[in-house]
Every structure is written in structure tokens, then in C-alpha cells.
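Hey team,

Filing this mostly as a record. A colleague (T.K.) asked me to run one chain through the structure pipeline before their review meeting, and I want the input and output archived in the tracker in case anyone asks later how it was produced. No errors, nothing strange. Just documentation.

Input sequence:
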Amino acid sequence: MPSAERADITINICDAHHHLWDLSAVRYPWLDAPRGTRRFFGDPSRIQKNYLPSDFFVDIQRLPVTQSVHIQVGAAPDHQLAETAWVQAQIDQSSAVLPSAMVAFADLTSGDLSAELDQIQSFPGVRGVRQIVGRAPDEDRDTGSGALLADPRWHAGLRELEKRSLRFDLQLIPAQMAAAFEVFKHFEKLPVALCHCGSPWFLNPRYNTSQGFDMWRCGLKKLASLPNMHCKISGLGMFNQSWDHRAVKIIFDTVLEIFGPQRCMFGSNFPVDKLHIDYQSIWQCYWQLCSELSKPQKRAMFAQNCQRFYAL
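Output structure:
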């Protein structure tokens, strides 16, 4: 966004979706992959290095980010608990302001899920769980992650989260939304955050024939009909890698129309979106998109909805 369009953001920000990592403490296969190994969000080479709270603060600069939520980010299976422990250490450091809380990984199909959740919940910063259902059509075909939606063990795992008053971060693609609705309509007391606006892949020519706008919008309306479903406006650089402001506005306007300002929250998806846009420009774009909203609505979307959802 040109500097002439920048304006001071006059309310506090709670970043609802970001990541941190220390490659000496936790192993992440996708960050250990050979340089140039492309993923659905692009070539991760530039972020295949530590991204610590100090690095996050450098990107934040003078923006009024006062709270944030760390989201699990693909640690190796034998390092998933280590990731949770490492993030808790960052939360506990008296000199660190961020992150404020985290969403950890758990395999909801595990036969030892109860014990696994006991371990996760021993860390006071944990607010919920994310187990990704869908990333992109080709990766999902390779991983079979979409099969979770039809797995009775996964449904039982969601019920266990509900019993424990944990939240669930739902990441999927538009083609999976109808099936997800059929699952989540049975979990009325489970707070669910739809990640990244439901992955609007129609913005990317590679996927727009199989993940079209109408499919996405229809799926959003189904999911939004569930009162416990919230939506994160986040990660849009993964789908719109040129960060075309007009395209972002289409996403924003549609999500706001469907979910309303009381069930939307903003997230940076840093440092993944750093591959395509800087932190300042993301939030300036969000601020500009909210120009027609009232001050209370802006406060809700920039901070209060996230604070309420994740009990910050």
C-alpha cells in the first residue's frame, strides 16, 4: 500500500493468528525441507530460519499490537508437545509481551487423546487445538487430511474438546465446507474459529476452477449459520500472493456480510504472509477496509472478538 494511504491505527490490536519458531528447540519438517521446496503458500526459503518474539516485534514496529495468539505450525509428530512447551516459555517470559495465548496441536483421532489433552492443558497458555483439515487441493490429495471429516474418531475428539471447554481452529478449503457443516452442526457448545476466511482459493488461477467463488460463499453461509462459528480474516497473502487490495476487499466484504462484525477477527498469519506482504501493510489494509464501520465495530474486529473468543 503506498505510504500516502497510510493512516494511524487508533485502537489496540489483538493479532488472532500468527506463528513463532525456534529451529534449535523444535523440529518442523517443512522448515527443514531443501531450499526452493514450494508449498501451497509459495517458496518458504526466506522464512526457513528462527522467528522469535524479538523478530515479531521488529515486524510489528510501532503498531499498537497489545495481545496475540500463537497457532501451531506443523511441528514433527514427536515434537508437537515440545512446540507447546516452547511457546508456553515465550508466554511466561516476564520481558515478553507477546504471545498472550496459543492454540496447540492434537490428533483428535488418537486412541490416547484424553492423556494427550491432559498434557496440553497442563500449559496455562493453551486455549484450543488446531488439526488442519484442508490446505490446498493438491496437498490435501497427498496427505488425505480431508478424510478427518468422515472419521468417527475425529468426531469423538471434537466432543472431547467440547467437554473440556477448549476451542477448535478449523482450517479447510471451500470444497470441504459442506461436509464440515454436517459435522459441526452437532457441536453447538464448541467454539470454532474458521481460519483464513475458509481459504478463498478462487483468488489463485491454479485452483479457481475447483474452488470457485460461489462454492466458497455458499460454504461460508452454511458455516456461519452455526452461532458458535467465528471467522478469522487472516492469511490472505497465501491465496492472493500479490495482495491485490480489490481482491482483499471482496473477501472482507463477503465475510463481514455473512458473519457480521461480532464474529470476525483479524490475524496476520506472520511470518508466513511475510513472503508476500509486510506486517504494516496488512494492518493498514484492514484499517482502510473498516473505514465505514463504527468505532465499537472496529474495536470488536481488531481486538475484542479475539479477546473474548480466546479468553485473553
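Quick notes for T.K.: The chain has one domain: 16-309. The radius of gyration is 18 Å.
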